[in-house]
């Protein structure tokens, strides 16, 4: 059965003079399919998904036809659409309506007017299917981000939808919670035959499982096909979305003359490497060993942290348990580690948002407490928080930036803003309201605001959260540029791939302390779980290739 | 007996009247079938009004809640003002403790919203207009909201009301009301224009609170 | 500690607290007041964690209100002493003050245990049928409060991280900074509210008549209790109409005699009503004591 048939759909938002948001879309989605929609931000993915549910359809002009189960979508009333088409959005917090977990699960069923008995049964079913029993009676404010998003999914599933639409559901989650969530979606698709339509920028977790991949580009569909065929298509056109593909595919396309079937997972990637080297002798198997990182060799550190202890309340447990490290000037220092281990608290302690009860923080060799009021943040230190929205307090991006300028006269200040806006590529956003921009744009605007304090040390808390592959690359370029200007960057992240590619030094943070610090190559080639996909797929052949680029390079050296 | 009941139980009788009035208002509201976006917006504003207190932890005795309720009244009219006032007073008592004062606070804050609603059609753009609004807010609190709260505590504490008890309660309430009024004055002065702009932006972007 | 009364059906809680608070305000008769004081405090003791501070505070309020009343109210026939050029301080006014103060304290104590027992979800359950849209708004506000509180902290932290915090500034700077925080919070909250309303629409809110799911179930015993409570209320109201709780303090002391059968019955019924949580608590303790003893 065909669930959705989209016939020549064109959609334009009101008051836009440029191209329509969607142009001549044709797409067929059959029952039980797992469909991945990918594309750069602004390519119309979200608009397309929202058109599939009438109450969420934005204002604008629509031509063409959308058929749901063989009849026009508008003919299905609110009640039918509500129960048959489930929709999960990006932000876990804003989607939750009620204050209790059990009430949230029942919310949709209450709206549809089911009786007590039915609701009780359905809610119980959902709670056990999704493993919610343990937090069934909790307040939603006590849940973690991953649990909240799972609750959103469960409360949609309670209405037993035939189609499940997910719009970047994991962009606000850490990688482990994100993988859990996507596995649950996969399970629903497999076990209940629910049709899944999903947009995601973390393709490695869903690409291989998809039946169809739709590539969107500037409001049009560039390709619809199986994952392997889409990979080949992107490679052929050297498409910008190529960077978003899972590592095994990237390596494969980087190396081969393409005679085998392309690998989609790490396992397939490793097997492909085996066959690749089956009839070749391994001439080069490793990069030259790097000297181990010696912290003591740093003569004049930008930041020095010594034996830092911190807890939020007198009787609360320690969050930081004797953290010590030094950061060299002008480098990118990355701290990786699991959720809730205290990484953010560490950053907050370095810039004085949290007060440690013991230990020292030295900024350029001078103790933090010795800096007088305001001196620390005017030209020395600044922090970009995890949620870029928490930095915006004004009506337009420009006004927000103006708040930070220090120049003497108006001209100076405007020049400063223009320069930073150019660096962060937000010139065309300046007159917009901060909330009217996309997630990636907000992140850049927030960075611009922080940079206007002209810090010599920049602290970044999870900067790549919710960024797509294309924007990550741009962001890394900005960071490199800042490093070149002599700015020291300390970033805290879950994003192993990003740190492997761009950091100068990587530290492992666990249980309130820093366990080990090393160069990315030494660091990741020694780990076997906490490492990059490229390293995992190639470690049985190459000793210390860490990024996809390196694996490709070593392969080519052996050709 | 019944006459005696009314004479000596000012608190119960007046509170029942207040609750009935509030209840009738809410029943009316339910009948109007408000749109989802509209009443989510009212919920958001009520929650902001309650939480706003925490932003001024550094400023002693500063309660912006009445000011914010009044701005909602100015933006969306007396009905919405009353709604936000009643809800935020009720919910803030979930945190600070429910008591016999709850109905009176709900009513008093609701009335603040109603009074602000009278300014709905006025233009508030220039500084003098904002100043005038802020002064209006100060007097609404000093002369209406504060005395309603004081009357509540008077009825709560005395069944036989003499000139002396009334005088003592109202006079001792005066400085408290003045501080409350001043906080409202400052809130309106600083926050009136920004919040109205935000609400207008929401009206345009999402079409909330359209006249029906 | 959540004892057995805590787990009863919310409707029982609601009727119980409406009954106690209303009667607490109506009955000025010393015997009734004494009942109310004893049982409100014992009920509070069984549910509250921190007791001493509240109870000592209540004692202070009681003493203060009792002693001050005659100052504001000079009528009464037994003059205890005169002051300020002949103003009377009378026994009747003092008694009246004590009765008033007892009433005030007992109502506050009932509310204190109400606050612990009647959590927001129980309250909302009781009103969700009567006022569905309004109770939905209340639910949402309760959901938003912790969310907004946390975001407010985030904004404040973010501003500290770029050196824009007015923590050590003048009063004016701190006030302006607070306004800026509230302003930023409002923008964020309104925007999030639109997402919330989409999520509600997407789950069929407003698609027809709404039911209200409840996780509370009526147990057989609770139904009996409810019936007994209602019967008891009828008895008390009857007694009151008959003048069983009649009392007048000013200008002369007049207290209804309780030796009459129906009046006595009213008082006993009243005490029984107020004793429900305490009795439930004691019975549960005994049951567990026996269970443990048998093992």
Could you give a short description of this structure?
With 559 residues, chain A is α/β, with parallel strands linked by helices.
Helix count, DSSP H or I runs of 4 or more residues of chain A: 19
Q: Structural class of the helices, strands and pairings of chain A? A: alpha/beta
CATH topology of the largest domain in chain A: Rossmann fold
- Radius of gyration of chain A (Å): 25 Å
Cα distance spanning the termini of chain A: 48 Å
- Give the tally of structural domains of chain A: 3
Strand content of chain C: under 5%
**Low-pLDDT segments of chain C:** none
SSE order of chain C, as H and E? HHHEEHHHHHEEHH
Classified in CATH, the superfamily of the largest domain in chain A is P-loop containing nucleotide triphosphate hydrolases
Rg over alpha carbons of chain C: 26 Å
Percent helix of chain C, as a range, is over 70%
Name the pair of protein chains with the most residues at their interface, and give those residue counts.
B-C, 62 and 65 residues
SSE-based structural type of chain C? mainly alpha
Shape call of chain A: globular
Largest sheet of chain A: 6 strands, mixed
Membrane topology (chain C): Multi-pass membrane protein
Subcellular location (chain C): Membrane
Transmembrane segments (chain C): 12-42, 54-72, 93-116, 122-145, 225-250, 262-283
Keywords (chain C): Membrane, Transmembrane, Transmembrane helix
């Amino acid at each position: 059965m065909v669930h959705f048939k989209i016939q020549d759909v064109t959609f334009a938002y009101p008051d836009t003079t440029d191209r329509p948001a969607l142009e001549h879309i044709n797409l067929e989605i059959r029952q039980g399919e797992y469909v991945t929609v990918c594309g750069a931000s602004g390519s119309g993915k979200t608009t397309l998904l929202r058109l599939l549910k009438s109450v969420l359809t934005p204002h604008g002009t629509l031509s063409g036809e959308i058929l749901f189960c063989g009849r026009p979508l508008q003919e299905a009333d609110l009640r039918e659409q509500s129960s048959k088409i489930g929709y999960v959005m990006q932000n876990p917090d804003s989607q939750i309506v009620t204050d209790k977990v059990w009430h949230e699960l029942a919310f949709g069923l209450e709206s549809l007017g089911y009786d007590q008995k039915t609701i009780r049964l359905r809610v119980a079913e959902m709670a056990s299917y999704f493993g919610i029993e343990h937090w069934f009676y909790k307040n939603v404010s006590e849940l973690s981000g991953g649990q909240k998003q799972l609750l959103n999914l469960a409360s949609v599933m309670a209405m037993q939808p035939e189609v499940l639409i997910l719009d970047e559901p994991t962009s606000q989650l850490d990688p482990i919670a994100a993988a859990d969530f996507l596995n649950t979606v996969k399970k629903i698709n497999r076990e209940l035959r629910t049709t899944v339509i999903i947009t995601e920028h973390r393709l490695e977790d869903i690409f291989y499982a998809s039946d169809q991949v739709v590539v969107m580009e500037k409001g049009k569909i560039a390709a619809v096909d199986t994952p392997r065929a889409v990979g080949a298509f992107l490679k052929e056109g050297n498409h910008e979305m190529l960077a978003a593909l899972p590592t095994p595919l990237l390596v494969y396309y980087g190396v081969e003359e393409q005679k085998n079937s392309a690998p989609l997972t790490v396992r397939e990637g490793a097997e492909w490497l085996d066959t690749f080297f089956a009839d070749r002798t391994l001439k080069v198997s490793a990069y030259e060993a790097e000297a181990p990182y010696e912290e003591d060799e740093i003569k004049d550190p930008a930041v020095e942290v010594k034996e830092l202890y911190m807890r939020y309340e007198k009787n609360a447990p320690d969050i930081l348990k004797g953290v010590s490290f030094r950061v060299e000037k002008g480098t990118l220092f990355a701290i990786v580690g699991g959720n809730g281990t205290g990484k953010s608290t560490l950053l907050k302690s370095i810039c004085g948002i949290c007060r440690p009860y013991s230990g020292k923080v030295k900024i350029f060799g001078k103790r933090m407490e010795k800096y007088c009021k305001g001196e620390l943040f005017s030209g020395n230190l600044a922090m970009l928080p995890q949620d870029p929205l928490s930095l915006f307090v004004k009506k337009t991006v420009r006004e927000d930036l103006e708040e930070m300028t220090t120049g003497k006269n108006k001209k100076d200040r405007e020049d400063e803003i223009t320069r930073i806006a150019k660096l962060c590529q937000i010139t065309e956003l300046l007159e917009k309201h901060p909330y009217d921009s996309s997630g990636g744009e907000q992140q850049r605007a927030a960075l611009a605001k922080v940079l206007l304090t002209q810090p010599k040390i920049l602290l970044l808390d999870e900067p790549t959260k919710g960024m797509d592959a294309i924007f990550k690359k741009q962001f890394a370029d900005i960071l490199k540029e800042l490093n070149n200007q002599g700015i020291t960057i300390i970033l805290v992240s879950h994003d192993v791939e990003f740190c492997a590619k761009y950091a100068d030094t990587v530290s492992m943070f666990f249980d309130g302390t820093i366990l080990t610090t090393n160069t990315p190559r030494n660091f990741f080639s020694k780990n076997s779980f906490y490492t990059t996909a490229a390293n995992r797929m190639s470690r049985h052949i190459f000793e210390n290739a860490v990024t996809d680029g390196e694996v490709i390079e070593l392969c080519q050296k052996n050709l | 007996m019944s006459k005696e009941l009314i004479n000596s139980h000012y608190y119960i009788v007046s509170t029942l009247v207040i609750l009935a009035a509030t209840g009738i208002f809410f029943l009316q509201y339910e009948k109007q079938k408000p749109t989802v976006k509209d009443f989510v917006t009212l919920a958001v504003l009520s929650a902001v009004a309650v939480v706003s207190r925490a932003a001024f932890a550094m400023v002693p005795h500063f309660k912006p809640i009445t000011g914010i309720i009044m701005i909602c009244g100015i933006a969306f009219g007396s009905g919405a003002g009353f709604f936000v006032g009643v809800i935020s007073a009720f919910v803030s008592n979930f945190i600070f403790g429910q008591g016999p004062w709850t109905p009176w606070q709900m009513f008093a804050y609701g009335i603040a919203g109603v009074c602000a609603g009278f300014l709905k059609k006025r233009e508030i753009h220039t500084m003098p207009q904002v100043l005038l609004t802020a002064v209006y807010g100060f007097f609404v609190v000093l002369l209406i909201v504060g005395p309603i709260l004081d009357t509540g505590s008077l009825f709560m504490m005395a069944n036989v009301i003499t000139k002396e008890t009334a005088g003592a309660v109202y006079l001792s309430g005066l400085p408290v009301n003045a501080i409350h009024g001043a906080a409202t004055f400052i809130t309106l002065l600083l926050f009136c224009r920004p919040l109205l702009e935000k609400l207008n932006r929401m009206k345009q972007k999402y079409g909330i609170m359209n006249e029906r | 500690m959540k004892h057995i009364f805590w787990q009863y059906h919310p409707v029982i809680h609601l009727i119980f607290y409406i009954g106690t608070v209303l009667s607490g305000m109506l009955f000025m008769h010393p015997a009734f007041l004494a009942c109310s004081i004893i049982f409100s405090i014992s009920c509070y003791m069984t549910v509250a964690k921190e007791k001493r501070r509240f109870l000592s505070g209540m004692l202070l309020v009681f003493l203060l209100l009792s002693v001050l009343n005659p100052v504001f109210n000079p009528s009464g026939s037994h003059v205890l002493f005169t002051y300020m050029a002949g103003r009377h301080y009378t026994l009747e006014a003092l008694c009246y003050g004590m009765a008033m103060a007892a009433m005030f304290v007992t109502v506050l104590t009932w509310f204190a245990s109400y606050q612990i027992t009647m959590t927001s979800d129980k309250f909302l359950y009781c009103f969700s049928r009567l006022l569905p849209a309004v109770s939905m708004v209340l639910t949402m506000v309760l959901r938003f409060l912790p969310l907004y509180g946390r975001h407010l902290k985030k904004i404040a932290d973010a501003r500290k991280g770029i050196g824009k915090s007015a923590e050590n500034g003048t009063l004016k700077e701190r006030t302006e900074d607070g306004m800026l925080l509230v302003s930023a919070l409002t923008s964020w909250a309104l925007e999030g509210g639109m997402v919330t309303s989409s999520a509600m629409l997407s789950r069929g809110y407003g698609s027809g008549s709404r039911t209200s799911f409840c996780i509370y179930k009526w147990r057989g015993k609770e139904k009996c209790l409810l019936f007994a409570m209602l019967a008891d209320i009828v008895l008390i109201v009857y007694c009151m109409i008959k003048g069983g709780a009649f009392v007048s303090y000013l200008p002369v002391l007049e207290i209804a005699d309780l030796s009459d059968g129906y009046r006595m019955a009213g008082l006993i019924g009243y005490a029984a009503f107020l004793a429900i949580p305490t009795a439930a608590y004691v019975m549960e303790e005994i049951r567990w004591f026996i269970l443990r003893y048998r093992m």
